[in-house]
What does this fold into?
Amino acid sequence: MLPENPNQPIKITLEDLASVEAPVLAAPSGESKAGQTRVYGNVGDSAEPQVQTPEERDSILLQGWFYLGLAGFLGAFLGWAMSEHSFIDGAGRSWGNFAIIPLVITLECVGFAIAESIVERSARKAVIRGLLALPLGIVLAFAFDIGAEAIFAILVNIVAAAGVHTNHNPAFWIVRGVAWTVFGAAGGVVYGIVGQSSKQTLYGALGGSLGALVGGLLFDPIAMLTKGGATSRAVGFSLLGMATGIAIGLVESAMKDRWLYVTAGPLAGKQFILYKPRTMIGSDQHSDIYLFKDSSIQPQHAVIEIAGARVQIRAMGSVFVSGVPTKLMVLQSGSPLQIGRYAFRYQERQRK
It folds into this structure.
């Protein structure tokens, strides 16, 4: 309180202090409440708040080895079914005898080409890829069939000179398996060409060859168990297609360098391997990564750009990286991303 004499010193009592009220100041923009971590904005801030999406359980249906194996099985079985009625056992030949293997390989190729698009629920992309794979598959199936027959004839003569004259000998199984690697390579090559990636073509050819080798090794034992005929061909060719697809998926996954793994959303559990210098993400079915059932996602929402060892995401729509809204950011292995209802984790293969 103020003294009566201005020359006396000012005295402040406890009652005076109790009556003082501190003004309430507004917290700076972007500052959190007391006791919580403060988060300050940056030039990439979006007006939209992030909606946290919990990680979901994987689905085997979205694993590459599974849907490619299923596609190979169905394609090979359909090829067998279309030609078996004209296939003649023993003496004599019909168009079914000449067409059965090329038809099996062609429909395998179509199956591999459209499998991922079906999983992504992009009917338009599946149709386009299927139409591209069909003529490619026909040409490669007949060309590779000629090559496989030539390899088979040469190897049969070699093992015959060593005393192997029937398919009951395991050496004959190896001969068929080696010759049939050519068929698997055809499926993998078409898979990569449709995917517009030379690296994917290489991995596909390698995986397809390994899978066809397994299918070829098992073909004659299956024929002996099923007493030959239509049943053995149905099982043998279907197994060939399935083994080829599974091997393509496993080899591709094992040799990948960079990929996006979906941790939440309709495609949770699927991985998108980043082969291209620019990978478009959006709600347009022509996008490399097609995201559906989310109206907040733009047709061309974001693009992942690869330049040497540098990988960055450029956002046209709302994108969060490690919980921070961004327009352009370099990605590190393990970085979490969120686009609408979809959550991803960017991964790189560890280099020694």
Q: What stands out?
A: The chain has seven helices and eleven strands. Residues 123-161 form the longest helix (39 residues).
